[in-house]
Each structure stands twice: as structure tokens, then as C-alpha cells.
Amino acid sequence: MIANLAQGVQAFTSNVFLVDGERTVLVDAGANFDVVAAVRERVDDLDAVVLTHTHRDHVGNLEAVKDAFDVDAWGYDTSIDGVDRAIADEETVRLGDHEYVALHTPGHKNDHLCFYAERPGVLFAGDLIFQNGSFGRTDLEEGDRETLIESIDRVRARIDPDLEEMHTGHGPSVTSDPYDHVELSAQMAR
């Protein structure tokens, strides 16, 4: 089960996905709302926090989550404060009941990761790709448009055209033809 704990939150935050199952994890921690209470409404415990990247809107609640549930944060770059364990490019990570491959996808931020599970056909796209052809900002520090395009192309080449769900760092998840949104993002970023 995947639930967006930030849905309906009016504060500036990223989406926060609770992936329940064999290994219960949060994908990103969000910012500026009580995510600990939101987690506790649904599950008793967490096994880890997995980060798409470390922009403030994705990690503002990280310390509170780590303290409340005594968990480690997993991300691409352990030299960044708060990231306890490294996830390498192409490493397999269990989120809920499924194995996801981590794809290093810089361009929005150097430590950006996307997570893809061929079965059940789910992509956590972070701030790389959004619905309707939108894509991550490249005007922030570490942003680079050409690198972002390469990262989108890499994800597009890796995912199955029958992708079932794309969960993004902001805005609604895409459950109707998400592959088409990835293709459109690749076109629009150019």
C-alpha cells in the first residue's frame, strides 16, 4: 500500500509516501507539517526513510521522523547531514513488499534518486518528472538542464511502457498512462 501523507497539507512541503508492507518506509520526509502524527495514524513503526534527494522541502521533517521511530535515512550521498546510509546507483532497495532499483538521476540536485519496481510497475520520480510533461527545476544550486534531460531519458529507457503508477515529489500521483507523462517530460525539458 502506498499513501501520500502530505495530501491536503497546505504548508510548503514535498509529497511524503508511506509504503507499507514487509519493510515499511517513508519515501521523503516532507517539511512544515506533523508527519510523525500522520505516520502513527497508519502504522506503529517504520523501518527506514528513503530519500529521493535532500532539498529542504523533502527533508525538513527528517530529524523528527528519525527521532520518533529510531530509523536511519537512506539516500545517495552520506556526506549530507541526516543521510545515514548510502544507496548506490542501480542498487536494489525494498520498499514495502517490492524490490525497487535506485537510479541516480541528477539534474535537479546532484543526489537525486528515482526508484523503480518493474513489478508492480511503480516509479517514485522525486522531483525529476511530474504529471503533464512537467519536470524538475534546474535554476537552483546543482541544477543543470542537460543533465536533467539525460536523467529523464535514462528513466524513460528503463521503465516499462505499461507502468502502472508514478509517484512524484509534488502534485498528484499519476495512475492513468504514467509512461506518457514521462515521455512528455522528456520532450518538454528539451
UniProtKB/TrEMBL annotation:
Gene3D superfamilies on file: Ribonuclease Z/Hydroxyacylglutathione hydrolase-like (3.60.15.10)
Xref: CDD domains: metallo-hydrolase-like_MBL-fold
Coiled-coil annotated spans: none
Metallo-beta-lactamase domain mapped to chain residues: 13-170
Signal peptide start and end residues: none
Alphabetically ordered keywords of this record: Hydrolase, Metal-binding, Zinc
Ion transport as UniProt keyword: no
Annotated region described as Disordered, given as residue ranges: 164-190
Pfam families tied to this protein: Lactamase_B (PF00753)
GO molecular function, one term: metal ion binding
Cofactor list: Zn(2+)
Classification via InterPro entries: MBL_Glyoxalase_II (IPR051453), Metallo-B-lactamas (IPR001279), RibonucZ/Hydroxyglut_hydro (IPR036866)
Protein name per the record: MBL fold metallo-hydrolase
Organism annotation: Haloterrigena salifodinae
